[in-house]
Amino acid sequence: MLARYMQILTSEFVGHYLLRLINIHHSFLPAFVGAKPYHQAFEQDIVRVFHRDTVEDMMRKGRDLEKVVLSRAVRWHLENRVLVYQNKTVVLA
Fold first, then answer.
1. Which pick of 21, 25, 51, 90 has the fewest CB atoms within 10 Å?
2. What is the reported pTM?
3. What distance, in Å, lies between the first and last C-alpha atoms of the chain?
4. Going from the N-terminus, what domains does the chain have, and what CATH number goes with each?
């Protein structure tokens, strides 16, 4: 597990673990590219933010959401609910 590793993995590394990786990206791709997405984003659909939220508030909300998403992804993987089909990830309800 490389949670919070925050580095770009080489294609050789990814190729070695093909179809066995869970990627929880910290950025709000594709709209906010780069290492400081919380400094660029003001509203997102997933986590409620307010105009009075500071960058620190958004970073905290993002970190909290990352934990929830990662734990959910691992649980679904362990329950065999995550499949790869035609280069797409499918999660069974």
1. 51
2. 0.59
3. 25
4. 11-91 (3.40.50.170)
